[in-house]
Amino acid sequence: MNGAIAVVGIGADGWDGLPESSRRALRTAEVLIGAPRQLDLLPGDHCPGERIPWPSPLRPAVPGLLAAHRGRAIAVLASGDPSFYGIGRTLAETVGADRLRIRPHPSSVSYACARLGWPLEAVETVSLVARPLAALSAALHPGRRVLVLGEGPETPARVAALLRDTGWSGTRVRVLEQLGGPAERLLDATAADWPYERTDALHVLALDCVRDPDTLRLGAAPGLPDEAYEHDGQLTKRYVRAATLAALAPAPGELLWDIGGGSGSIGIEWMRTHRSCRAVAVEKAAERAARIERNADTLGVPGLRVVTGPAPVALAGLETPDAVFIGGGLTAPGLLDACWDALPAGGRLVANTVTLESEALLADRYRRHGGELIRLAVAAAVPVGGFTGWRQAMPVTQWSVTKGSEEG
Q: What sign results for the dihedral spanned by CA atoms 231, 236, 237, 241?
């Protein structure tokens, strides 16, 4: 194809591990672009093209670098499989997939599973490359096997410290270095006893997750224990939260506005349903906004965006949501209208309240737009003298609705 860019995956085994089709693309390239470590794996007598290391930061430099060499035969080097947490995605978004000729090499994850005897389809992979360490927390469940793509030589020690600090100190941690190359090595210890401050920069971590006996159990479904959250009382309680998430019906890739975030529980559990789900928590109190950020880190969704300010003013400029939850501030002038107007056709809105004034607003919107208006009542068994009785929590009125195309 005229103007096609060759994207060649290469492993720690270097030139010797490449198939002939990949070698041919590298031999005939006029321009070779890659990380210095990758470029050093190519023999000069076989690959005479001009060598250009990626600048830092990489992503914003890609369009200009490719444009500067338009009309020349370009080959881009990538670690392992370019389409697996690699440069392949950035290139496809920059020039279009039809201009790429991707030649994958076995990924580090494939190598790791081969060495450990783990079934690839049953393993969860978490990348910490240019991502917060806290992102690992959501993947930790007893008995699960997790592969972690590290960012540098300090990553294994940082991961071990996170596991110790969050109640997973019994987890077995294995570091597989230089997979597929002559310097391949395995390091093996528990998080509690991890002795290595630094490892080889080219590595994969393998975790056999073990929860400490006194660590709170967090399931994968919405409705985490209230004790999982730091809060000042502004918290959608567990059973109401589970019903609220069911009404919001998160799907992969969707964006939620969580308005009146409080402790952030709705946005956090929305994001925990799938790694591609996104959320913006809007909270007017700075102290609570900071608390939302801490809860998001603790519960493994550091990507939750927190906007500090009163709604509806703070909603200006936010990306169009797929769903909106209003957990506080319903009586703020213009809030319901702003949220309704922001939703596209097919978008969902869920609002909860415990006050008569806000309930009247929801009843009016129910008459105008339909949907479902319900009351949630939860009672808990408590001691009554020497017996047991029910203690009723304040009932919650919930309105949920899907916006029709005729209401845009």
A: negative
Q: Work out the percent of the chain whose per-residue pLDDT is above 70.
A: 99
Sign of CA dihedral 84, 86, 89, 92: negative
Are the C-beta atoms of residues 75 and 29 closer than 8 Å to each other? yes
Are 37 and 183 within 8 A, CB to CB? Answer: no
Average pLDDT, the chain: 95
Residue 123 bridge partners (DSSP): none
CA angle (34, 155, 117) in 5-degree steps? 85
**DSSP calls for 225-273:** -GGGS--SS----HHHHHHHHHHH---TT-EEEEES-TT-HHHHHHHHT
φ/ψ of 375, rounded to 5, equals -120, 125
Nearest to 378 by CA among 343, 354, 361, 402: 354
pLDDT value for 59:
87
What would the pLDDT profile of 374-392 be if each residue is shown by its tens digit?
999 999 999 999 999 999 9
Calculate mean pLDDT across residues 233-252: 96
Say how many residues make up the chain. Answer: 408
| Rounded-to-integer distance, Cα 79 and Cα 83, Å | 10
DSSP string, 102-157: EE----HHHHHHHHHT--GGG-EEEE-TTS-GGGGGGG--TT-EEEEE-SSTTHHH
Q: Which pLDDT score, from 0 to 100, does residue 57 have? A: 87
Selection from 169, 166, 87, 97 nearest residue 129 by Cα: 87
pTM above 0.85, yes or no: yes
Residue 279 is classified by DSSP as E
**Class of residue 133 by CB neighbours under 10 A (exposed 0-12, middle 13-18, buried 19+):** middle
Question: 3-state DSSP call for residue 331?
Answer: coil
| Tens-place pLDDT, residues 74-88 | 999 999 999 999 999
